[in-house]
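To: structure subgroup
Subject: Chain for Friday's discussion

All,

I'm putting the inputs and outputs inline so they're searchable in the archive.
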Amino acid sequence: MGLSGKLIGWLSLVGVVSAIGFAQRFAGGKPPRNALFHYSTAAAELVTFAVILAVVLWIAKGPRLRELLALRRPRSWRRALWIAVSVLLLVYALNAALDPLLHPGREQGLTPHGWQPAHAGAFAANVFAFAIVGPIVEELTFRGVGYGLLARYGDTFAILAVGLAFGLWHGLVEALPILIAFGTGLAYMRSRTGSVYPGMLMHASFNAIALAVAVA
């Protein structure tokens, strides 16, 4: 499969997942507020991520797979750290500014009614799904294959396009500006470090913090 075929495959994947997400959103479908305390939530997410990862690896397959996925040591971990801190601060500031108007944090419907010690095992399974597996798969999907295929059109275009695609991927409306900003920041990190690993760590940290705050 040539680069054009790979790009069509990636755009098709992003388009299908985005369409399904928005269809569910406009149909009013949200998970129950205590979904994080159910094993079924984690199981569904893990199956979904496994399917997505399989498609991504199929798109990226070939002698340049590791290069396309940016599976290499970053040029500078120090630079990656500074970018991560800056991006997270900007995203949190944007979230705080938009929260009174859009309430982006509530849209996904995963905010539980406080901590439930009896369901700690299920919560741990969901942390594994959302804060470890999810970030790894999504970084390979967007800052790996996506950025790698779009970089030939210029770094700026690739960063903005990947950020937009990442936002649409989640099928959310009120949270879309936050997701685009976060996805763009991750793509910027990928462009400056040459690696997908720093983005995985930042993405995982962001999701883990969100889950911790959700049950606080």
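Points worth raising on Friday:
Residues 3-215 form one domain.
The radius of gyration is 17 Å.

D.
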